[in-house]
Amino acid sequence: MKALQYSEYGPSSVLHVVDVDEPQPGPGQVRVRVRAVGINPFDWKVRSGAFGDTTPTRLPVIPHGDVSGVVDAVGPAAAGAGEGVAPKVGEEVFGVAAGGGAAEFAVLKFWVAKPAGMSFEEAAGLPGVVEAAGRSLTLLGLDKGQTIVVNGAAGGVGIAATQLAVARGATVIGTASERNHEFLRSLGAVPVTYGEGLVDRVRAVAPQGVDLALDTAGRGAVADLITLTGVPANVVSLVDFDAPKLGARVTDGSEGRAWDTLREAADLYHQGRFTMPVERVFPFADAAAAHDLSQSGHVRGKVILVP
User: Fold this and answer.
1) Which of 101, 155, 176, 247 is the most buried if burial means most Cβ atoms within 10 Å?
2) Which GO terms describe its molecular function (predicted)?
3) Is the per-residue pLDDT at 56 higher than 60?
């Protein structure tokens, strides 16, 4: 089968399409014919060698874990995330690959049924960002009626966190550039511009105060978010690993994953209350350009690859 692969760390030019053997599903897994693959920042950070000796993989690498596709083989005792029912061959699903997902076939370890009406490209953009958003909101202990600031609300995780928080009954203040403000309003958030003066802008739209804050974008915002919440532990960052020095918390998934949130997002999609914009779709042959676009930081939603 055809797969995307790199055999050395470096710029996006290290990505190549190669021929490899088809994977086989093990216990608790399914294999899908891949229809689309989502790109997350983690993917190009690993590819670049940014994690050094901590990089959780060995070369050569078939990258990307977020996948949508059609089930074509089922391993023993396979059941999806929060589903409890084994899928059938031919079922359309999205989920997380057990190994590399950027290939014509991939083995999934967590998955849910793809909602009717959701494109494969949309579905491939969901797993990683939805899990990270759900995990972060759980760590924060978000309750109905609370006010939360989502820093970087127009990025993948920010979009997911905003919609999940709104659905759970919270008031969401989302930071983004002005070009994304109308989009954030469509998600049910109150938009504010990020950068210098953030504290004053948030207080102007939330005079009642802020309970919690989620940092998905970095940009040195943690100190401002602590000022807004008044409690350092009420701030969680997915990207600023110096946040604990200020008393805030960081989540990287090592404390446990929230894959059941995939089902929540799928249910909200059925209700017309969840969306994930697709910025652009690239074929595997143009994976380098896709990585470069994702890495540029000027993306609303997700960049997607297709075989």
Assistant:
1) 101
2) oxidoreductase activity
3) no
* CA triple 213-123-285, angle to 5 deg: 110
Q: Of 209, 233, 250, which one is at a domain's C-terminal end?
A: 250
Higher-confidence residue of 55 and 288: namely 288
Question: How many angstroms separate the CA atoms of 160 and 162, rounded?
Answer: 5
Number of domains composing the chain: 2
Q: What is the mean pLDDT of residues 34-39?
A: 98
Let me know whether 113 and 152 are in one domain.
no
pLDDT of residue 79: 67
Closest listed residue to residue 225, CA positions, set 241, 249, 252, 190: 249
CB atoms within 10 A of CB 185: 12
| Nearest CA-CA partner of 123 in 147, 91, 86 | 91
Give the domain range for residue 172.
Answer: 129-250
pLDDT at 57 (0 to 100) = 64
Tell me, rounded to whole angstroms, the distance of Cα 13 from its chain centroid.
24
CATH number of the domain enclosing 286: 3.90.180.10
Domain annotation covers residue 263: no
Average pLDDT rounded to a whole number, residues 269-298: 96
Q: How confident is the model at residue 54 (pLDDT cuts 50, 70, 90)?
A: low
- Which ranges in 35-155 belong to alpha helices (H)? 41-48, 120-124, 127-140
Handedness of CA 202, 205, 209, 212 (dihedral sign): negative
C-alpha–C-alpha distance, residues 272 and 248, integer Å = 34
Could you give the dihedral angle defined by the CA atoms of residues 82, 164, 129 and 190, in that order, rounded to the nearest 10 degrees?
180
pTM score over 0.85: yes
Domain membership of residue 199 (yes or no) is yes
What are the structure tokens assigned to 26, written together?
Answer: 């093990």
Domain membership of residue 81 (yes or no) is yes
DSSP code for 290:
H
Q: Which pair of tokens denotes residue 232?
A: 């350092």
In a domain, 37, yes or no: yes
Whether residue 238 is predicted with pLDDT greater than 70 in this model: the reply is yes
